[in-house]
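Duplicate of #3305? Posting structure anyway:
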């Protein structure tokens, strides 16, 4: 009965939260790892029973286990709200590998006041906090983690509790822990990837090159730099990077310019594209159109969708407004966010080849390319930034 009452308190107090980013957070590149409604983008490891209840991820039944992200991260800032019962025992895994021992392959940030050596605020077997911390049961608390290189700086409810230097793991999955009969809830799980460098300098097209269509169009794309914006109009055409990338985190702000409410400009971002090839590799769609006034019904894959493979689960972007687009490519795994909202998460199941549209996985490095689709093309890009990832 005590556990049931505690769980009810968790669920009721979670309902007030919205799990949303502010416009400032979205522009800065923050990502929602939990959308407040589902476990999209997560995978269950072990025997714990995870569910979403009133805006929180809750575990209160089953055996030991963890819920991990499908996407791996290296350097980041992380924010997580959590709540436990009076005898809570849980944790947050950082840079862990798949499998049953995430605290061994990565790091476990403790939520366990009674641990004799590594209590709440510590990282199990790596660093002990010197603060005397007590989690208030049935109340929300917030962990903030700054994880860059070997440094892991931890704050609890705004106060620094640990500053660890440990190089055991440089990247990996994030995870939420459940121990049997120890109900726990999490919400507002937000992450900002760090270490991204400019891919567009805001002054000229240095580092980029145009690729023309195989058949010369009557009016080719016109690429230019205006007031710090990478602008394209008319079309069709392509602008690609001279540097090749395989695994990476890419963020950019995009604006599709339309003078007609009934017209939604069509474009895309290609990656692992054949250098000097035309519209090759994987394509992440740009098209803010949806059916029947319902943003969960994208037209032509929808902005953030993986063309030919997975439509966007929601059209978040709006024409004539800048939005932030995030693409993470790690081997066969591809994930996208629009304004920090997760819209696609896919693992390529096909044999390796040269053409995703023909159901072939492309794993080799390639160019990143911006698409000009047709004569009505009119788009702006800014704050284009990237970080290569080790596979």
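Output from current build:
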């Amino acid at each position: 009965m005590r556990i049931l009452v505690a769980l009810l308190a968790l669920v009721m107090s979670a309902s007030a939260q919205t799990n949303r980013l502010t416009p400032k957070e979205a522009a800065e590149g923050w990502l929602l790892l939990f959308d407040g409604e589902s476990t999209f983008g997560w995978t269950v490891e072990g025997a714990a029973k995870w569910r979403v209840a009133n805006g929180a991820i809750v575990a209160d039944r089953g055996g030991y286990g963890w819920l991990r992200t499908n996407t791996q991260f290296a350097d980041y800032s992380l924010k997580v709200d959590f709540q436990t019962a009076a005898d809570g025992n849980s944790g947050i895994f950082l840079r862990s590998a798949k499998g049953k021992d995430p605290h061994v392959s990565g790091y476990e940030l403790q939520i366990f006041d009674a641990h004799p050596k590594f209590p709440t605020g510590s990282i199990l077997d790596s660093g002990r906090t010197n603060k005397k911390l007590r989690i208030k049961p049935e109340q929300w608390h917030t962990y903030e983690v700054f994880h860059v290189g070997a440094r892991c700086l931890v704050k609890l409810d705004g106060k620094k509790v640990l500053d660890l230097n440990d190089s055991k793991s440089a990247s990996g999955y994030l995870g939420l822990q459940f121990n049997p009969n120890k109900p726990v809830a999490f919400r507002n799980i937000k992450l900002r990837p760090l270490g991204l460098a400019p891919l567009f300098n805001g002054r000229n097209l240095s580092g980029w090159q145009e690729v023309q269509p195989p058949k010369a169009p009557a009016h080719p794309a016109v690429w230019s730099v205006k007031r710090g914006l990478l602008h394209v109009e008319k079309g069709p055409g392509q602008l690609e990077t001279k540097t090749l990338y395989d695994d990476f985190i890419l963020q950019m702000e995009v604006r599709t310019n339309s003078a007609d409410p009934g017209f939604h400009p069509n474009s895309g971002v290609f990656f692992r594209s054949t250098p000097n090839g035309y519209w090759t590799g994987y394509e992440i769609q740009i098209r803010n159109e949806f059916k029947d006034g319902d943003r969960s019904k994208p037209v032509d894959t929808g902005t953030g969708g993986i063309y030919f493979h997975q439509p966007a689960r929601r059209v978040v972007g709006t024409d004539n407004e800048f939005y932030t687009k995030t693409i993470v490519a790690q081997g066969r795994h591809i994930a996208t966010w629009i304004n920090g909202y997760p819209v696609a998460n896919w693992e390529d199941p096909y044999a390796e080849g040269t053409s995703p549209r023909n159901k072939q996985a492309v794993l080799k490095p390639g160019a990143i390319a911006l698409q000009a689709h047709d004569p009505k093309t009119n788009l702006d890009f800014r704050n284009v930034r990237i970080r290569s990832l080790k596979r």
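Confirmed duplicate; merging threads. The CA atoms of residues 236 and 325 lie 22 Å apart. The first strand starts at residue 31 and ends at 32.
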